[in-house]
Design a protein that fits this description.
With 559 residues, the protein is of the alpha+beta class. The chain is built from 24 helices and 13 strands. The strands form 4 sheets. Strands 1, 2, 3, 4 and 6 form a 5-stranded antiparallel β-sheet that branches. Helix 2 packs parallel to helix 7. 36% of the residues are buried.
Length: 559
Amino acid sequence: SAARPVKIAAKGAVVAGGLLALVGYHTDEGFKRAVQFNWHVLPIALHYKAVQLATRGRDERSVSLAFAQLHEKYAPTSLEIVLRQKGFYVKSAQFLSQYPDIIPPDYVEAFKILRDDAPAMPYGQVKSIVEHDLGLPIDKVFSRFDPKPIGAASIGQAHGARLLDGTEVVVKVQYPGAERQFWIDIDLSIRCCEALAPYYVDVLRQLQKSFATEFDYRREAKLQREARKNLQSFRGIQVPEPFDDEHPKCQRLFGKGLATKNVFVMERLYGRPVDKWAHEQLQQVAAQEGTSVDELTERLKAMSPSELARHIPSRAALRSYEVLLQARDQLRNSVAFGYNWTLGWIGAPIDYVHTPRPVNIYQVAETLFRVQAKCIFEDGFFNSDPHAGNVLLLNDGQLGLIDWGQVGRLSETQRVCFAKAVLAVADKDEPLIAELAWDMGVETSCHNDWVAMKLGSFWLGSFGEEVTAELGGATVFEDNLARIDRLVSTAQDYVTAVRCLMMTRGVVALVGFPAANSSVRMRSAAEACLQRAGVELKTTPGRKLPRPDLEAIMGPVGR
């Protein structure tokens, strides 16, 4: 029959297509990673979408329970996918893990291991890369090179080492193929967002742009040197010095710098990342209370900001405790000194003690906001990836700012515009917040001023209840806001600055201030920025926009 040739041709086309797909899978890395991504991720996304449709119109408790079961089921699976895919997926999971108020706690718990303990490559491979890039045997540069990495991240890992002259350093080594994988993965993510969530495309494109320097450690060394120069007189902050072409010791010892495309040697700072310190605090409190860290974490998450505040020691209490420790050490050490210089001559001497001082969480939060305000409003040059693993609580009480591979820049005109927006949010001038959001490039489907105001308050202000509660809390804030008026485009020129503020708030949340408001904390710096530019801004504190009837538009707001 006439249909027979058509059927044969169709079958042939299917077979040919299958063979081409098979060949593509095994020969084209981009195609292979796209297949792997779709194969593992799409079923999860479809399950979430099905539950969302099935629970539409139900009460808040039923919706929360249904999604809680999905989170519990898929968080460990998602970690496995991230570890398998590596690269961009690890970076994204690291970023998300800092926001327990925005993403479900099951995912925060699953992804937090990636902040400083991503999969590491073996020492033999590290040694080969270091020697190839530096053009010298490893023992001609280092007298010691620790085989076990200090930490492993999305595109590389860091090792402790000692130069031939005894200087302690950190050596960053990039994973082979990391750059190619990243471009493949982010291109795939952008295509997915164009189809499913177009309002995230701008964010991904900005991330794509900011990552351009992170795959060449020579560029990162230059950026880190620029940051160090900008902040060298900033009290309480340390940026590690790069051992690059500009470092005099490199020229004297090796005749060249120790920063190449894949290897980057820098000064070593001693301390703990904020996220590790925060986890240690949880472990200590859990042990004191005879409970587990997970149980304690769940209890803390159930508390309101005001309840959490009651569990944080006051400034006076911290200072009193520090004075007590200092007095106790002085008393014991004075006794030890007297003994060591008398009876200690004939017996065993007594060791002196130096009890570690408690971290001044108030000073940490204030210093972080002040330094980010300086970087944004004065220098127009800031770290766009200041997550909790990149902020160190140094042993001498200072803060160490590391990993300057991703930076953002703002022109003077952009700094002025950003300062205006920060002040409008700080003063809760809702019409002005919306006006400035439109001016900065925010676009929504219906140009709803109230939605633009809410976005600005969330991005530049706080994750706290005063901003997010009426939309179901921070976790579902943006989703519920989209039900009123969908975000089409973010403020493209300011995405990295917004990211800097939001990530800084994430770090500050870990030291005890989950409802910190970055606009209030940076008010004085924003005002100074406008003064330097000769620009005046009149705000009307507390001025309101008409609030839409949320219940009529959305029905019950689910968390």
